[in-house]
Design goal:
By secondary structure, this protein is of the alpha/beta class. The chain folds into two domains: 251 residues, Alpha-Beta Barrel (TIM Barrel); 72 residues, Arc Repressor Mutant, subunit A, CATH 1.10.10. 42% of the residues lie in helices and 22% in strands. It is built from 14 helices and 15 strands. The strands form three sheets. The protein has a nine-stranded mixed beta sheet, with helices on both faces. The protein has a three-stranded antiparallel beta sheet with strand order 10-11-12, with no helix packed on it. Helix 2 links the parallel strand 2 and strand 3. Helix 1 packs parallel to helix 2 and helix 11 runs antiparallel to helix 14. It is globular and about 60 Å long. The mean pLDDT is 94.
Amino acid sequence: MNGIYLHIPFCKKRCIYCDFYSTVKGEETITQYVKALCNELSLRKDFLPSLNIDSVYIGGGTPSLLSPKQLETIFKTLTSIYFLNDNAEVTLEANPDDISGDFIRSIASTPVNRVSLGVQSFDDRMLNFLNRRHSSLQAIKAIILLAEKGLENISMDLIYSLPGQTLSQWEQDIDKALSLPIKHLSSYTLTYEEGTPLMRMLRNGNISEADEELSLTMYTLLMDKVANAGWEHYEISNFATPGYRAKHNSGYWKGMFYLGCGPSAHSYDGTSRTWNAKDIDRYITQNGDTRSLQEKEIITQTMRWDETVMVALRTKEGIDLTYFSNMFGNQGKDKLLHYASRDIQDGNLKIEGQRLHLTRKGLFVSDSVIVNLMRE
């Protein structure tokens, strides 16, 4: 399986919690950037073992800020180099207030078949706190319009454990999401990242983190409501209606090879990981030639072990013990099960057939369970 990630680092304004690489630039810079991005796609065409692509993800930033012409340029370059498989998933991240009839018509002529909307909340007070530029009504209208215009595969994000957020407010967010024509939901607890305005607000005493017990109750409520709606909880933070798991993220969790283009984008070829510098000015100046803008690390056996544990345990299926044994030997599998024995005894992990996976109880302490199984 091969994937491509394209980073579009432009935003009209920054959300207070976001630590992804992004910038606020004018139209001229965006045009120059698209040219450089297309050149990087061309220069690195030999990175993946095959030109057949299963998944493309255009993230940011705010990719929905791109004009129809800029999107057309990107996809024209992409499809002139790579072959999109018949069932390839092509996702475009979008901000709800960018969704319009014109926007939908512009993506209809591209391979985009999935839109991921950064909704985050249906409470306008929470959206204002997060410095989001859309309202709850705009988010609802965006989802309905996408569905009415024939886009079947719609995903959205929600954040919980927001300062001042009550359980009742969170329940309303979940109910509203499940009432809309979406196929996929990603939901994360609010995290306080270094260098963000949110972290500065916390350190200055302007806000307080949500109570841990309340956060766990919110997560429980989410799991129960989504399950009752017939959805699949297939990864710690991801839920889908049957048949609509996110292929791109699932590829990451299964060791997919992927090429990442744009500042800060990561790439993986099975033996090493490379990433581009977070510097849009140099990226544009060098027209997407990232050879002097990259760092690289070779994946050691210890790193491979830890990454296998970390990504596999986040999924519903957990760790495939046969695969693990093939990769690390029978002694490696025995060592893993030795590391897991306490959490199995405590009811956080369970072995079913040849799979070691988190139990419902284990989902609440997943971070510590994963650490217990890592070699580093």
